Amino acid sequence: MSVASRKAVGAGLTLLTGAAAALVVAMLAVILVDVVRGGAGRVSWEFLTSAPEEGMTAGGIFPAIYGTAVMTLLMTVAVMPVGVLTAVYLHEYAPPRSRMAALVRVAVTNLAGVPSIVFGLFGLGFFIQFAGGALDRALSPPGELHYGRPALLWAALTLAVLTLPVVIVATEEALRAVPREHRDASLALGATRSQTLARVVLPQALPGILTGAILAVARGAGEVAPILFTGVAYFLPELPGSVWSQFMHLGYHVYVLATQSPDVEATRPLLYATVFVLLALTFALNLVAIAIRTRTRRKAAAGH
Amino acid sequence: MTSIPHPAASAAKMETRRLEIRYGAKAAVKDVSLTLPDRQVTALIGPSGCGKSTFLRALNRMNDLIPGSSASGEILLDGRSIYAGHLDAVELRRRVGMVFQKSNPFPKSIFENVAYGLRIGGLSDRRELGERIERSLRSAALWDEVKDRLAESAMGLSGGQQQRLCIARALAVEPEVLLMDEPASALDPIATAKIEDLIHELKVRYTIAIVTHNMQQAARVSDQTAFFYMGELVEVGPTEQIFTTPRQQRTEDYVTGKFG
After folding, report:
1. How far is CA A298 from CA A97, A207, A304, B119, B256, in A?
2. Which residues on B lie below 8 Å from A298 (Cβ)?
């Protein structure tokens, strides 16, 4: 190859890869600019704190924010203990080369690859019909459905299953990062395995576990498909009164505003503003996760 | 294999009889019978991979944590097997403490590092904790350097201070035996000298076994020296005799630096 053609190939590749990278940034920029321009101006205190009115052509999105928040909170409460305990078993208690642990890891990997609408159907089948149905047969008067119907709790549990892999992987990662020397030091001082876990390993892994929790929240808060059949409502005049109520949700509200409005023009600013709020929330959560992770890394680097 | 009684014979604090330790099919320690005399320093020397660290870690059952390791033969503490029912690994490790090659303080305050073993042992009285911690830090010759910053992170200490902190942490639970695995190998000469002085002071109260690659260090700090080679105990005797008139050719070659 001549010098000129080598240079041409080099320049061509720089251009091609650079263009691909620029395209990614550009797409994100277009989305952000469009959402901010269309939505930021419409977001006000009133918009954030009032309910939709007049067939969703006026009013705010408070019930959707509230529903999203409560659902996400319930989901976190459900997913963290199970996820953390699973990761602790996998990393701390399972014997090396354990078949059981290998099986759980395969299951976790596959769970992460399941399309989210399938989780929605799973939630409908397992939580509502199987678990809820069983509760109704046991507790409700014959013919009445109290538990076997879409509800805040079932939606939260479905999302908990969806976000389980995120928590398990993050927690295992965090446990792996605790130096062996610290475990040895603890055991050599006469600590039991559980004391070592509680006093040395988990405190050091905590920032990593929290990062996992926030990533799970960021993922779970934005998912719509898993809650379609399991608890979300198109419109509710009241806030959910218990975990057995249905609820409104930001992501689903975006879908409703975009497709179900009687007056597209009147709804558009509301739609933009809702998307803006949803994006802002997700970004904020991701930023918190990144901040925690950076701080942990810095601390770990300073530790040795 | 040679084993002679120590001339200044004092009671055996720990003793192994025909100890063999395997990692899977490979024997890392073969047929080692060795006595750690009460309140004396025993140096374990030998080239890398000779089994001396494995031997040391068997004495407080830290080897048990390595998957695939197994031990046969006997290990006695005060004449009783450490595998017998009256003692589990947790209790054993409170009586037989350990200081590691790489200083490994917890990412906690200086106070909490030394308090760790006491807290897990159930001590929570603040005043008594404070007294025990001061005593341990004094024993480890660290008190004067850290007494004004006990609440600060142990990670801010120098390497030598961190290692003395680890010694203080091990002393706090008041063990009877102290195992030291190359405790000064990562330290500069001044910090090393401090650790060696410390060993001299500690042997008044503790039975000490120290693994070292440094011949001068073994000669300076120990009363008895055991030379390991390829998993076997080649020779053990009073330190002076091992370094001046070893009875085995391999020992002489090693201590005079012909190999190793």
Report:
1. 33, 12, 11, 29, 46
2. none
Q: Considering only the beta carbons, identify the residue of B107, B120, B173 that sits closest to A195.
A: B120
Q: Which of B100, B155, B173 sits opposite A190 (nearest CB)?
A: B173
| pLDDT given at position B2 | 47
Question: Among A74-88, A201-215, B33-47, B226-240, which is the least confidently predicted range?
Answer: A201-215
Q: Residue B16: give the domain boundaries.
A: 11-255
ipTM of the complex: 0.89
DSSP assignments along B166-235, one per residue: HHHHHHHT--SEEEEESTTTTS-HHHHHHHHHHHHHHTTT-EEEEE-S-HHHHHHH-SEEEEEETTEEEE
**Chain A residues with CB inside 8 Å of B94's CB?**
189-190
Within-domain flag for B260: no
- The residue in chain A having the minimum alpha-carbon distance to the alpha carbon of residue B102 is A181
Domain residue ranges of chain A, discontinuous segments joined by +: 1-42, 47-303
Give the CATH class of A47-303: mainly alpha
Report yes or no on B6 lying in a domain: no
- What pTM, to 2 d.p., does this model score? 0.82
CB contact under 8 A, B65 and A187: yes
Tell whether the model's pLDDT for residue A23 goes beyond 60.
yes
| pLDDT above 70 for A299 | no
Which of A187, A199, A303 is closest, CB to CB, to B93?
A187
Confirm whether B144 is domain-assigned: yes
How many domains would you assign to chain B?
1
